[in-house]
Specification:
- The structure is a single chain.
- The chain is of the alpha/beta class.
- It is built from 15 helices and 12 strands.
- It has a 6-stranded mixed sheet, with helices on both faces.
- Helix 1 packs parallel to helix 9.
């Protein structure tokens, strides 16, 4: 899973990145724009993995992971001149979701340079930039299609593509995101190669300061009308990364933070992408795997290795709740809770699978 952090200049994206990754990238106001994205892979800290590791005592425990990419800040009004460097643009197109960081903290230097915080306006500004970027893509494709028509290549496939791209173009010129356009499965398939930015799931991160964290319910409610949202106390939570767990927990409790920034981002990312976790267990390894809610056992097998999907026979299955209530895998089997499922079984969050296969 890949999450791209985007936002206006000095919105605190890199501060959020540091809070998530415990890194120390430069966040100085006058440090200038970064040339290339900051990238880190973080573990999805699922307490169920810890319980399973205690039970099986494996040689290796492997958490699910999220790749977090901190892109340079968007300059309002950049429009057709390009939001990102070519390298960054390629990476953002490959992101599974975008986390839009908006400023909701008080800082005299930032306010002096960029004005007072205005989260809703900032969301609108960045989304407008994404729509403009997509509009350029749609315009260029329509121009190329027209060029192909002039060469006598007016095929049914090209005509179908033109119809779909024009539908997107006409929505984009009204300011609508591609995500909000009613598209059929076939139309979505035609558009998959374009990698439009405004079609991606959006998570808004409200970056508040220590003093106003937890006091923005009406603002969050307004954001929630359109987007999923989570509130961070960015600078405060970045500083927590330098403390041990006990000290960090005490400070978090003081301002009402119940989970780490990483845990809250993970939960929100899984929600907007419709993802779940299943597990494989044994003495060699306990591992979490990430799939979509609609994925079946064959797809889950493929997440482990393509050979397992190709030669799928059956999945031995029980749940995390089964093994914790029974105390062991042996107890699960004794109580008849171990199931054999076929390739079309819809895997549930917390399932523990062992794939039988033959290739």
């Amino acid at each position: 899973m890949r999450i791209g952090l985007i936002g206006l200049e000095k919105s605190g994206k890199t501060t959020i990145y540091n809070a998530l990754t415990k890194r120390e990238m430069n966040t100085d106001l006058f440090g200038g724009q970064q040339d290339e994205p900051n990238i880190a892979v973080i573990d999805v800290l699922d307490p169920r993995i810890e319980v399973l590791s205690m039970m099986y005592e494996p040689k290796k425990t492997v958490y699910a992971t999220i790749e977090v990419i901190d892109f340079a800040g968007v300059t309002s009004g950049s429009g057709k001149t390009g939001l990102f460097t070519p390298v960054a643009m390629n990476m953002i197109k490959q992101s599974d979701a975008l986390a839009l960081v908006v400023r909701n903290f008080r800082d005299e230097a930032v306010t002096g340079a960029f004005g007072p915080p205005s989260p809703l306006d900032d969301i609108g500004t960045v989304m407008t930039e994404l729509v403009l970027s997509d509009l350029v893509i749609a315009e260029r494709r329509l121009e190329r299609i027209e060029s192909e028509y002039k060469k006598g290549k007016k095929t049914p496939e090209l005509q179908s593509e033109e119809k779909t791209v024009r539908k997107v173009y006409e929505a984009l010129i009204t300011g609508s995101s591609v995500r909000n356009i009613s598209l059929t499965a076939e139309e979505l398939k035609r558009l998959s190669g374009f990698q439009f930015l405004s079609i991606k799931p959006i998570l808004v991160i409200l970056n508040s300061d220590e003093d106003n964290y937890g006091k923005n319910s009406s603002l969050l409610a307004s954001i929630h009308e359109t987007y999923e949202a989570v509130e961070f106390a960015g600078k405060f939570e970045m500083e927590l990364g330098h403390l041990d767990a006990g000290e960090a927990g005490a400070f978090m409790e003081d301002i009402g933070i119940t989970e780490s920034a990483r845990a809250r981002l993970t939960t929100a990312a899984f929600d907007i992408l419709g993802c779940i976790s299943f597990f494989t267990v044994g003495k060699d390894e306990v591992r979490a795997w990430t799939i979509h809610k609609s994925d079946n056992a064959a797809a889950a097998a493929g997440a482990i290795h393509s050979d397992l999907a190709r030669g799928f026979i059956r999945a031995e299955c029980f749940t995390f709740d089964d093994i914790t209530s029974c105390g062991s895998e042996k107890g699960v089997k004794e109580k008849g809770l171990l199931r054999l499922e076929g390739k079309n079984y819809l895997v549930q969050d917390g399932d523990i699978l062992s794939i039988r296969y033959s290739v």
